[in-house]
Write a structure and sequence with these properties.
Layout (H helix, E strand, L loop, with lengths): L12 H13 L2 E5 L2 H12 L7 E4 L6 H4 L7 E5 L7 H13 L1 E10 L2 E10 L2 E7 L6 H4 L3 E4 L4 H13 L8 H12 L4 E2 L3 H7 L7 H18 L6 E2 L4 E2 L2 H18 L6 H14 L8 H8 L3 H14 L2 E3 L10 E3 L25 E2 L7 H14 L23 H6 L11 E3 H8 L3 H10 L5 E3 L2 E5 H10 L1
Parallel strand pairs: 1-6, 1-7, 2-3, 3-6, 8-10
Antiparallel strand pairs: 4-5, 9-13, 11-12, 14-16, 15-16
Helix pairs in contact: 1-9, 7-14, 9-10, 11-13, 12-13, 16-17
Length: about 475
Amino acid sequence: MPALSASGAPPSSCTSRVFAAAREAGLRCGVKGTSKRQEYTTQETLRFFPAEAFYALSAMSERALAYSEEPLKHRTLVIYEAAGLSGDFGTYLRSLLSEGCIRYETVEKTPQGMRSRLIQREGPTNLIITTTAVKLHPENETRLFSLPVTDTPAQTAAVMERIAAGRAYQVDYLPWLAFQEWLAIGERRLVVSFAEDLARSIPPVAVRLRRDFGSLLSLVKAHALLHQGTRERDAQGQIVATIADYAAVRELICDLIAEGIDSTVPPAIRETVSAIAQMINGTDLEVTVTEVARALRLDKAAASRRCRAALDAGYVINREDRRGRPFRLVLGEPMPADLEILPRPEALHGCSVDGESHPSPPLMPVSALIRRMSATLAAIPLGGWPGSSSRTCGRCHPPVGEAEDLRRCGMSESSTPKLALTVEETAEALGVSARTVERLIASGELRSRKIGRRRVIAMAELQRFLVWR
């Protein structure tokens, strides 16, 4: 995966979209590469998310995951060094990722003597870890998508050029943070109508696919959630994912899933094994890591990582059996032809859609919404949201072409938009009593969220209620 530029520009499209989708879907991923590059990639990407959305640590002791009081439910746990993922820690982590919680019973000394205590940590929890290791523990690898950092000379040259150019980009993180807040209070029920057709189209060649298929559907739903303004709703008001959502996700993780089940060979490993084969050229020669680095024009550390990965896969063999001695590499098993695991989007275009589909309620396009929220948040004083629409800002006026979108959403060009309404404001907007709104919330017909001491109803939820009730 391309490393982040050193200019402060947004992450590469693949990196940012994987992390954004993972954040919304509750997935896990590992970033592999040299320590500086993979940590920088992660740190810069996390700037696009609110601080309360993740819990970042350099390292963690074995039992800290069980004893810590830091909330992990619906948050991303970020660990910048995966060396400690073993022993009790690895067990707790796998339980948190697979079962969505940790139930750890221990014995403690009390004034009444030794007593047992049950510690329970609630999930679900998303996980991002970085490591310089080629592979993690097999039990952890099956629960992660591994994203290797690109180590090619071309990428190194591009990074150095960007460093020399300085910080050419100034990133405005405010609209992205506002977008995350908007997602949290809006509709989050999604349906993938073509899921069964997709399952039948994937060859069941590995047991790991049982986990990966669930992650695939979660990412498709996450992509539809991010683009809900242009997605239809079903009879229950759920957001309906499209083939376009699958196509975007497939582009991101097709190779990751195939590499995870060893049905394809990563390009870097294929290039390394091919270089070794050319140097041997049918003879009984043995190749060193230094010679591989010279042939690929890489530094010795990068070449060593590639050779270790090829050794783990069995495509090369190390004849040196003494520890600490240089590798003596020869060819091992032949590399397999790549097997396509995820079907192409066009193969699913004829899939049927379950149930009746209805157009979605009129929502502001995401791009327009982000710009409006950015201006709104910039005008908010410390202490809370404005209570009326009279507060204006010179930056609040939408660009030409968005006035119609704002009119359909119930906003005027001169007003500050509200993302949510209180119970009283909702009652006034609907022309009913506050008690009626409270009954709708209690029955589940109208979904709300409590922020501080106030209960609010998202504008998107109110639109859904009016259209589908």
